[in-house]
Amino acid sequence: MKPQTLALAAILSVALVGCGTTTASRTGTGAAAGAATGALIGSMSGHAGEGALIGAGAGAVGGYLYDQNEKRKQYYYGGYY
User: Fold this and answer.
1) Concatenated DSSP letters of 47-63
2) Are 38 and 52 in contact (CB under 8 A)?
3) How many CB atoms within 10 Å of residue 35?
4) Which residues contact 26 (CB under 8 A, 6 or more apart)?
5) Angle at 77 between CA 13 and CA 20, to 5 degrees
6) What share of the chain is helix, strand, coil (3-state, %, to 5)?
7) Rounded to an integer, what distance in angstroms lies between the CA atom of residue 16 and that of residue 12?
8) Radius of gyration of the chain from its Cα atoms, rounded to whole angstroms
9) Residue 38: φ, ψ to 5°
10) What pLDDT, in 10s, does the model give residues 3-36?
11) pTM of the prediction?
12) pLDDT per residue over 29-79, tens digit each?
């Protein structure tokens, strides 16, 4: 697999985490994007399933942390900016 394809998949997965306004939607989007990216990376070594599971977990954590950061900014700065 080409490095450009991997980079594109990583950029798209990070960009999709920002979609949504609730904790569940951001965490779910992060998990889905992480699973897709993990499967893509894992398929290079013949372990697409394991890569998808690891990616889903990492994506869910990333989506949750992003959501908490957005809520903190909203609290401190009052509303969306």
Assistant:
1) -HHHHHHHHHHHHHHHH
2) yes
3) 21
4) 17, 18, 19, 20, 63, 64, 66, 67, 70
5) 30
6) 80, 0, 20
7) 6
8) 14
9) -65, -40
10) 666 676 666 666 665 567 888 888 888 898 888 8
11) 0.70
12) 889 888 888 888 888 888 889 999 999 999 999 999 999 998 888 888 876
- Structure-token match 């989506």, residue found: 63
* Per-residue tokens: 61: 């954590």
| CB-neighbour burial class of residue 61 (10 A; exposed 0-12, middle 13-18, buried 19+) | middle
Contact 64, 26 (CB under 8 A): yes
**Separation of first and last alpha carbons in the chain:** 40
- Amino acid letter for position 16: L
Q: Which two tokens stand for residue 17?
A: 């985490």
Q: Where are the domains of the chain?
A: 3-76
